[in-house]
Amino acid sequence: MEKGKDPREGIKGLLAKGGLKKLLVKAGEIHGHYCSHVALGVMATYFAFKKLGITDSTGMEEILAVVECNNCFVDGIQAVSGCTFGNNALIYKDLGKTAVTFIDRKTKRAVRLAAKYTGEDATNDPEAEEARSLFDKAVKRREKLAPRQMERMKELWTKMSFASLSRPESELFDINFPEPEVIAYAPIFDSIKCSVCGESAMETRVRMKENSPVCIPCAGDEYWMVAGRGIHPAGKK
Ligand SMILES: [Zn+2]
Ligand SMILES: [Zn+2]
After folding, report:
1. pLDDT in tens, 128-152
2. How confident is the model at residue 125, as a pLDDT?
């Protein structure tokens, strides 16, 4: 372990000098593929930080990213901004819009970027058309692509996502500066041991059954789940 070293030093440096290609590579490391939306997430973060004068976030909830979707866009945002699901600086609103609002708690300023260009829009571009038809087949209809088609799709997506990095912000996003929403810091709760399975759970997620603490699955209660289709109830048998 490197003592005292900022783990985001590399990303911070890339943000400062506008190293968008390398930032997209970083985002690809967690996202697993290159696509137009992960590139948009990279760009949204880069533009937002510039507009709010943010040089970096330290993952301590001082900078928040309020996202309105759970698609590829969000991984570009998590990788580059450092606002993640795990450090509670990523707030998810299940609105189905490719949009993000960054909030700086210190300066009390916010910027919202809503995507206009999605990379698949350019219908006069034969490669974009080809990429879209492969996407429809593989992702929308869940049909199996031949290995060669799969390779071709990845190749087209990679090309399109890196190409989109040179597009001007006005082409990519509608940008405005709303009043920052007040969002509470993540509270810290005690953990309580479930009397049935013996696992510890956050106290607000523990139920009392016959005077004993029981976790949600052991109680057979309903809970909220985030999956591909958004936030929905789960667990109730
Ligand atoms: Zn993607
Ligand atoms: Zn349990």
Report:
1. 889 888 988 988 899 998 999 999 9
2. 82
CA of 38 to the centre of ligand 1 (A): 5
Phi, psi of 34, deg, nearest 5: -100, 135
The environment of the single-atom ion ligand 2, i.e. residues with CB closer than 5 A, is 194, 196-197, 215, 218
CA of 99 to the centre of ligand 2 (A): 37
pLDDT confidence of 5, banded at 50, 70, 90? confident
Domains of the chain: 9-120+159-176 (3.30.1330.130), 191-234 (no CATH)
Residue 121 CA to residue 128 CA, distance in Å, equals 8
DSSP 83: -
* Three-state secondary structure call for residue 95: coil
Q: Please, which pLDDT band fits residue 119 given cuts at 50, 70 and 90? A: low
Give the burial string for 149-167 (b: 16+ CB within 10 Å, else e): eeeebeebbbebbeebbee
Write the DSSP string, 12-66. HHHHHHT-HHHHHHHHHHHHSS--HHHHHHHHHHHHHHHHHT-----SSSSEEEE
Rg of the chain in Å (alpha carbons): 21
